[in-house]
Specification:
CATH superfamily of the largest domain: Intergrase catalytic core
CATH architecture of the largest domain: Orthogonal Bundle
Helix content: 40-55%
Strand order of the largest sheet: 1-2-3
Order of helices and strands: HHHHHHHEEEHHHHHH
Distance between the termini: 52 Å
Strand content: 5-15%
Largest sheet: 3 strands, antiparallel
Number of helices: 13
Number of domains: 2
Structural class: mainly alpha
Radius of gyration: 25 Å
Number of strands: 3
Amino acid sequence: MCPTEVEWFANLTNRCTRRAYENTIRDFMAFTGIQKPGEFRRVTRAHVIALPDDLGNRVLNGTTIRHRLSALSALFDYLCEKNAVTHNPVKGVKRPKHDSLEGRTPALGDHQARKLLDAPNGDSLRPLQDKAILAILLYHALRRKELCKLTVKDFKHERRGVPYLKVAGKGGKTRYVPLHPAAGGLIHNYLERAGHGADDAGALFRLVSHNTKSGEAKAITPDGVYKLVRTYSGKLGFEIGAHSLRATSATNELDHQADIAKVQEWLGHANIATTRMKILSL
C-alpha cells in the first residue's frame, strides 16, 4: 500500500506545482535526515522552526521561504486529513514578512546605464554588436523577443524624415518607436562591420561565429540576450537581467515628464493599467 505522503504528491496535477513541491520536499528531507516518506510523521515543530534560519543562511529570500513552508503545510494538512498524523507542525510557525521590494524589477541609475553601455570594448564584430544591442534595450525598452525579431528593414523606417524602429510586439501587434540617435549610430557601426546592411529581410542582430557562412545568417536568441546583459552587468558589480533595461527606459522617460499614455504605447502594453502597475513596481 502506497504511503499517504506519496499519495499526496501523486494528487498534484499542476506540473509547475509538482516541480516546486518536489524541490521543497527533497530539500526538507535532506535538512531533517528523512530517508523514507513514512518518516515525515516524526517531524516536530522544532524541525519546522529551524528551517527558515537554515534557508536564510543559504541566502534564499522571504518569498521562497514562505512558499516552502506553504508546501510543507499542504503536505501535513493532507496527512492530518488522512489521520496519518495528529497535527500539522507547520501551523503557527512564523513566516518571513512580505518585503515591499520583492518581485520588483530594478532600474539602473544614469551612471550605471552609461557604464553598461561602455562595457563592450573594441571595434571587432562582437563588441560592436553587443554595444548596439545594449543601446536598443536601454533607449527603446524592447523585450528580448522583440529585439531578436528585428530585421534590417525594421531599422530603416522613417516618418517625416525621423528614423523609426518597427517592432513586432506581443499578440502580433506592430508599433513604431522613434530611433534614438545614439542607438542609431551604434547600429550603423555594427552593420558596417557585419556587412549585412543590404539584407533587408534578414535578422538585424545575428549569431557571431568563427564560421561566418553558417553563423551570421541566424538571429540571436532571447537566451543569448539575457546572458549578454548578465555578463556585462555582472562584471560591473550589479548583475541584472535584460528586463531591468526595459524598466530603466520607462523610468527615464517618466523622469523627463513623458506622458504615461505615451510610455504605454512605447512599451507595447495593451492596457494602460498594466503600465501603471509596472511603474508602481519599479
